[in-house]
Design brief:
With about 375 residues, the chain is of the alpha+beta class. Among the domains are: about 170 residues, no CATH class; about 90 residues, no CATH class. It has 16 helices and 13 strands. The chain has a four-stranded antiparallel beta sheet with strand order 10-11-12-13. The longest helix has 25 residues. The protein starts with a strand and ends in a 26-residue tail after the last helix.
Length: about 375
């Protein structure tokens, strides 16, 4: 039987549906995070804004409580980057991505002069971090690291070995639960859950990814997770994998969970404001599904920052920023092209909703990135 060919518009709407961006949904934070697979969390505010964009009646206090209840956790995972996932998923995701993290860190370990002894250091650090510890505490606890090695000394050594361990960040106080001086804790001690074996982890990662971002190719899953193509292929193409298959308009083979939603390509897609590094923009080898190629250099900075964006009709259509003016939050937007009057009204209404969410938390969220706005195209004046 010939595989169904999905148009670019259908793939866009499939992604929006699975990412809860066609309509806001009433879900608790744990269920929502699992539906979305993982929320990138380099900036502490980003997971909160990501859920605000997708959930009806979202209260930041609910996610904060989930962090402290240990049902949602934050740690280094996909692409050696901080992500927020459910505690259940972390126990499966970590074994899947750990080999890729170790391979990526191998060069750094050589630079700081660490070899086989890193395993012993890791075990001692994990044993010490059964309760939350600052990085300096963990570094100084390891006598071998006290004197430091390599050009930058012990700080670089700790930085090199930290991602090799199943460490989580322990939450702190509002507004965003995590500050810029984190505390680390061993994942099994924090969650009370043992880690799965690697094959089970990779199988779960593939299924979660496809439920959250599919239909998609193995190259997309590799791009998002950095799990090796060989391992992805072995699991996804196993006789018992049970995945559905499609083709895109270029003939590329796509995988999906059976019965995954496939809305019509002309399904209405409302305006949405997304945080920095929203996973929607990072999930594919070809980001054209949601981010037009002409605008990638504007959204993705040379240093790797993904700026806050807004979407119109399911595509990234501009940037946004928040400023504190007269004690209030003012969200302004910079469209990539002049907006139709109806779109402008919808964008302004959504910006006002975002202002109401941000104001009691951090009115000028992401302010440290404000200078990355295009200098020759300053944002529109804040609304008074």
């Amino acid at each position: 039987m010939a595989e169904r060919v999905l148009s670019a518009a259908e793939l866009n709407r499939a992604t929006l549906a699975r990412q809860l961006l066609l309509e806001r949904t009433a879900l608790d934070p744990v269920t929502a995070v699992e539906r979305l697979m993982a929320l990138q969390a380099q900036e502490p505010a980003s997971p909160y804004i990501a859920l605000w964009a997708r959930l009806s009646g979202f209260d930041a206090a609910d996610l904060h409580r989930a962090f402290h209840d240990r049902t949602v956790v934050k740690g280094t995972l996909l692409r050696v980057t901080l992500h927020v996932v459910s505690a259940r998923d972390y126990a499966l995701f970590w074994p899947a991505v750990a080999p890729a993290i170790r391979a990526w860190r191998a060069r750094m370990l050589r630079q700081v002069g660490l070899g086989p002894e890193v395993e012993g250091l890791a075990e001692r650090a994990t044993a010490f971090a059964t309760e939350p510890r600052f990085g300096a505490e963990l570094r100084d606890h390891l006598p071998e690291l006290t004197g430091g090695t390599g050009p930058a000394g012990q700080t670089d050594t700790w930085w090199a070995i930290r991602p090799l361990l199943p460490f989580l960040m322990a939450p702190g106080e509002p507004p965003w639960s995590f500050g810029r001086r984190p505390r680390f804790v061993a994942a099994p001690s924090w969650t009370g859950t043992e880690l799965a074996d690697r094959e089970a982890g990779v199988r779960h990662l593939i299924e979660r990814y496809l439920a959250s971002f599919g239909p998609a190719g193995l190259d997309d899953i590799h791009k998002f997770s950095h799990v090796s193509m060989g391992m992805l292929r072995a699991v996804a193409e196993a006789p018992d994998a049970g995945l559905a298959t499609y083709r895109d308009e270029q003939g590329r083979r796509l995988l999906d969970i059976p019965g995954g939603p496939l809305p019509a390509g002309d399904t209405p897609a409302p305006v949405r404001f997304l945080p920095m590094w929203d996973s929607l923009l990072l999930a594919y080898a070809d980001r054209g599904r949601v981010l037009p190629a002409d605008h990638r250099p504007t959204v993705i900075r040379k240093n790797g920052d993904f700026l806050p964006t807004f979407t119109i009709d399911g595509k990234v259509a501009g940037l946004w920023r928040a400023d504190r003016i007269d004690g209030h939050s003012h969200v302004t937007h910079l469209p990539f092209a002049p907006l139709a009057p109806s779109d402008e009204l919808e964008v302004m209404a959504e910006a006002a909703r975002l202002e109401r969410f941000l104001e009691p938390l951090e009115p000028a969220v992401f302010a440290r990135y404000a200078t990355t706005w295009l200098k020759d195209q300053p944002p529109s004046a804040p609304r008074g």
